[in-house]
């Protein structure tokens, strides 16, 4: 894990612990000071591929640390 990936992982982990859902890419950009959505997205994909994060395709804010278990609640 690179330093930039570690920073994004820590942002996502902290956001989940504080709010109970994942941050948007814009939130991550604001916190890390990254200037491009594509850069953040590429780092998130690398973390998912490495197994540090999990997420659902085409679902906003679904990326979470791999250790969290999240269940979909049907209404």
In a nutshell, what does this entry contain?
The chain is mainly alpha-helical. It has helices spanning 3-19, 25-32, 37-50, and strands spanning 53-54, 64-65. The protein has a single domain (3-65), classed as Arc Repressor Mutant, subunit A, CATH 1.10.10.10.
Please, what is the average pLDDT?
89
Shape: globular
> Which fold does the CATH topology refer to?
Arc Repressor Mutant, subunit A
Q: What are the secondary-structure elements, in order, as H or E?
A: HHHEE
Instruction: Work out the radius of gyration.
Output: 12 Å
CATH class: Mainly Alpha
Low confidence ranges: none
Tell me the fraction of residues in β-strands, as a range. 5-15%
Structure explained in plain terms:
With about 80 residues, the chain is mainly alpha-helical. The protein has a single domain (about 5-65), classed as Winged helix-like DNA-binding domain superfamily/Winged helix DNA-binding domain (Arc Repressor Mutant, subunit A), CATH 1.10.10.10. It is built from 3 helices and 2 strands. The chain has helices at about 5-20, 25-30, 35-50, and strands at about 55, 65. It has a two-stranded antiparallel sheet with strand order 1-2. Helix 1 crosses helix 3. It is globular and about 35 Å long. The mean pLDDT is about 90.
Provide key terms for this protein:
mainly alpha, Arc Repressor Mutant, subunit A, two-stranded antiparallel ribbon, 3 helices, 2 strands, globular
